[in-house]
Amino acid sequence: MTEPQILVPGATIGILGGGQLGRMLSVAASRLGFKTHIYEPGANPPAGHVADVVTTAPYEDEAALKAFADAVDVITYEFENVPTSALDLLDSVKPIRPNRKALAVSQDRLVEKAFLSELGLKVAPYAAVDDDVDLAEALVEIGAPAILKTRRFGYDGKGQARIMAPEEADQALKDMAGAPSILEGFVEFSHEISVIAARGQSGDISCFDPGENVHKSGILHSTTVPARLSPAQRTDAVLLAAKILNALNYVGVMGVELFVTSGGLVVNEIAPRVHNSGHWTQNGCVIDQFEQHIRAVAGWPLGDGKRHSNVEMLNLIGDDVDRIPEFAKDGAVAIHLYGKTDVKPGRKMGHVNKITGPA
Amino acid sequence: MTEPQILVPGATIGILGGGQLGRMLSVAASRLGFKTHIYEPGANPPAGHVADVVTTAPYEDEAALKAFADAVDVITYEFENVPTSALDLLDSVKPIRPNRKALAVSQDRLVEKAFLSELGLKVAPYAAVDDDVDLAEALVEIGAPAILKTRRFGYDGKGQARIMAPEEADQALKDMAGAPSILEGFVEFSHEISVIAARGQSGDISCFDPGENVHKSGILHSTTVPARLSPAQRTDAVLLAAKILNALNYVGVMGVELFVTSGGLVVNEIAPRVHNSGHWTQNGCVIDQFEQHIRAVAGWPLGDGKRHSNVEMLNLIGDDVDRIPEFAKDGAVAIHLYGKTDVKPGRKMGHVNKITGPA
Q: How many CB pairs lie under 8 A apart between chains A and B?
C-alpha cells in the first residue's frame, strides 16, 4: 500500500458533487479545520452555502477540472456517477479517495454483483441483459417476479422496472431505453439493514452499528438504530462490510445495504460514499459518518463508531418538509435541512434524527 | 412585545463578526436550511469558510453596512463591541437580535453592574473610575486586592490590571490609557460556573445545565458539565439567568458567568451571544447553543436544553493545537477547529469536547 498522506488543518478537500451529502461533508470538514471546494455542474448547489469555494462547470470542462484539481489537496465525491473521462483527468493531478476501483465496481451493477460474488458474499440471483433474447433466457433462469435495472446511473429507484410475470418483459426492456441492463431476482427478506463502514489510509476499519432501513417508492424512508439483529447477525454484517473494504483497498466511508434472510445476509448494493442510511450518526455518535469520511480521506485516525444514543432517522421527501414546525417543537428531534429552494415530489429536502433513548 | 418574525428555510441570517463563533453559528444555521452572510472587517475570517456570503468592510463603511442589511433577513452578532454608529444604521433597515438594550448593557461594565444590581442580583463591589481621585476613593471603599478594568472593549483578560496593594494604583491607571474604567473588588468564590440561557421571540426561556469553568491567564481553559452545584444552587443559577433575559426582553442565547460563593451566586459578567463556556453543548445535546441562538433569532421554538452526555470542553489556545493528533486518536473526543492559519500565543485555535459518560 502507498504511504499515508496526512492532511493538516488549513488544507482543502475537493468534493465532486454539491448536493446534501457534499453539504454535510463540508460542515464536517470545517470542524477539523479543513476548507472545501465543491465541483458541481448545477447552479446554486446546497453544498455551496457552506463551502469555501464552488466551481460551477460540467464534468466535460477540462480546464475547470484541471483548475479544481490544482486548487485542492485531495479529491473525494458525494456520488458515484462521475464520468470516467473526468476521473482520468483529476486522477492525474491529485489523489482521489475512495479509489477508482471502488468507483468502477459501484458504477456498474453487473460488475458490482460479480465482485461481491467472487468475494464469497451472497447477492440476489442476477444475469446480464442487453436484448430481448438475454431477457427471455434470464427470466427462465431467475424466474419472475424480478427487477430489470440499468447497469449504470440508477439511484432512488430510477432506471428500474419490475417484471411480475413474463408478459411484462417487453415493456420493462423498453423502459431501459437500450441501456445495458441486469435482471435481478427477488430476495425473500425479513428486513433491510445497512452498515456504514469506514477504512482509513493505514488499513484500520471502523463500522457504525447497523441501522434498519424502510423504503417507500424506492426511496429510503427511515433508518432506525439499533436494527433488529441477533448478535451473530450483527457480527456477520460488520465482518462482511470489512471484507468488501479490504478487497477494494478502500479509503473512506462506504454504505453497504444488506437483506436479512433466513439463509443469512444478502448484499443488496454498496455505495462508495457517505450514505443516507448513515445520517443518524450525526446525532447518535461523537464522530459522525461525514467526519469519519473526512478523517479517512485526510489520513487521520478514525472514530470508533460508538453510539451514545439510539436514533430514528426520518427522511423529509417533497412535502414532508411542511412538517418542520411540528418537528421543531420536539426537543428530542434534530433537524437537518439541505437548503434546497424548490420542493418537488420525491426530492430529498432534509431529514430529522429523533433521539429515542441512550444506547 | 412585537409580533414574532418567523424565518423560513432559505432565509439569510446576517452575522456581525467572522470569528469562530460566527463560524459555528453558520454551521448551525445551515442545519436549519438558512444561509448566512458574514460582515467582518478582517480578511479571511474563519466564518467565511462556511458562510454563503462574506462582506469584508470596516464598521465605518456605511454603504457596505447598508448593502449587508438589505441582503439579509435578520441581523445577529458574535461579539458585543460593534460600534454604536454601525448598529444605528443597521437597526434602521433590519431587526437586530439580541436587541440594542442587551448590547448597550453588556458593552459597558459599569452599566452592566448597575443593571444587574437593580435587578436585585449580587455583583462584585464596584466603583466608576475616571481619574486618580476616583481610584483613590474607590480603593478606600472597596479595598485591595481589586481589579481595574476598562468599561468598554475588554475581553479575555485584556484591558485589565490587578491592584494587589494601593501603591500599584498609579501603574494600573496608566494601563487603562485614559479609558473610562471601573474598579471591581475581589469576590471570594469556590468556583465559577456559567449558564447558557436562551429566550425565544415569544418569551419562552430554555437553559442548558450550568458548566463549571476554569480560567488560565484570564482565558477560559475548560468547562465541565455537570458543574459542582447543589440542586438549590442549580435552580438559583437558572432562575437568575431567566430574570436577566426577561428584564432585557432578550432574544437569543446569552452566557451568564457566575461565582459560586458561601453567600450565594454572584454574577461575574454577561455576554449577549453564544459563549465559549457553551461549546460543550455541541456534543452533549441534540440542539446546541449555536442552533439554539439561530432558532431564537429566527422565531423558531427553542430546544429544551436537555443533555444526553456529560462533557469536558477544553480550549486549544496557541500551541495547544499541536495536541490534535493525540486528541484525534480518542474516540470519545470531538475536535472543533476554527480554520485559523496563524498560531499565536493566547489565540483560540479550537476546542475539544470529551464525552465523559451518559448524563
A: 112
